[in-house]
Design goal:
The chain is mostly helical. It contains eleven helices and no strands. The two termini are 36 Å apart. Its main location: membrane.
């Protein structure tokens, strides 16, 4: 009885120590990501000072997409506007899902899959850094600022930017590439690779819906999302390096390799 009591006390102490370690790991990562976000935001503000060519670039993107025979975003948007509730849902998804879902997944990974989390974190840093280069090198006005398009956020009173395109805390001329699409694809790919659930493939719906939403709301062109996916592909070595599955729990029926060899 005494030995069992001591074992329970020891286990309780270990669990408490692990809880403290998880807490400080989450705090450390939150501070790190917040710092990186501030650096990224500062870079976007620097990019916002060079917006003279943003509208010219928008015309170039539309012409290039037309040459590629990509579907016309304005036509798709005007079709969607026949269903106001659909567009309002798209506005809500654009404003409310992107950052909170990304943060929730990162938090879950940092607690339950800390080794895999480091892969995802550095992949996101790489993707975001490359995107910042794109924002600075190629300022681009989003479709909602162009003739023939509708700013659905303003129309339905759900705008996250407001009517002033030149002011505010965000750089609205940073459409290229779309981090909404890039981050959504990264989160989906990460959860598919890291988790074991048979439902994990449903994560593919997130980037698909996100890509549709940014087009319908007039916040991004097709090329914005395509370039974001290409930048994610360039960042995949950070995600796919060895150790991604090091802390993934084994299935209950799995047998350790040493026992099989014996």
């Amino acid at each position: 009885m005494g030995i069992e009591a001591l074992e329970r006390v020891g286990q309780g102490g270990e669990q408490q120590q692990r809880g403290v370690q998880v807490f400080w790991r989450v705090v450390r990562e939150a501070v790190l990501l917040a710092t990186l976000f501030l650096v990224y935001s500062a870079g976007r503000q620097i990019a916002a000072r060079h917006t003279g060519s943003a509208l010219d670039h928008a015309h170039e993107v539309l012409s290039f997409q037309n040459w590629l025979h990509l579907p016309n975003e304005a036509t798709i948007q005007h079709w969607a506007l026949q269903f106001p509730h659909l567009v309002q849902g798209a506005n809500l998804y654009y404003a409310s899902v992107h950052a909170p879902l990304t943060a929730a997944v990162l938090l879950w990974l940092s607690i339950w899959r800390p080794k895999a989390y480091s892969h995802v974190r550095w992949t996101m840093v790489s993707l975001t850094g490359l995107a910042l280069v794109g924002h600075i090198a190629f300022p681009l006005a989003p479709p909602r600022m162009m003739p023939g398009f509708v700013d659905t956020g303003l129309r339905f009173g759900q705008s996250v930017y407001g009517p002033d395109h030149t002011g505010g805390p965000t750089n609205q001329f940073a459409a290229m590439p779309s981090l909404h699409v890039g981050w959504a694809a990264l989160i989906a790919l990460s959860m598919i690779l890291i988790t074991r659930s048979r439902w994990r493939w449903l994560w593919l719906l997130h980037p698909i819906v996100t890509f549709s939403v940014v087009v319908v709301t007039g916040n991004h062109y097709w090329l914005d999302g395509i370039v974001a996916l290409l930048l994610l592909a360039a960042s995949l070595p950070f995600l796919l390096r060895s150790g991604l599955h090091a802390d993934r729990p084994r299935s209950r029926n799995s047998v350790p390799p040493r026992k099989v060899l014996k």
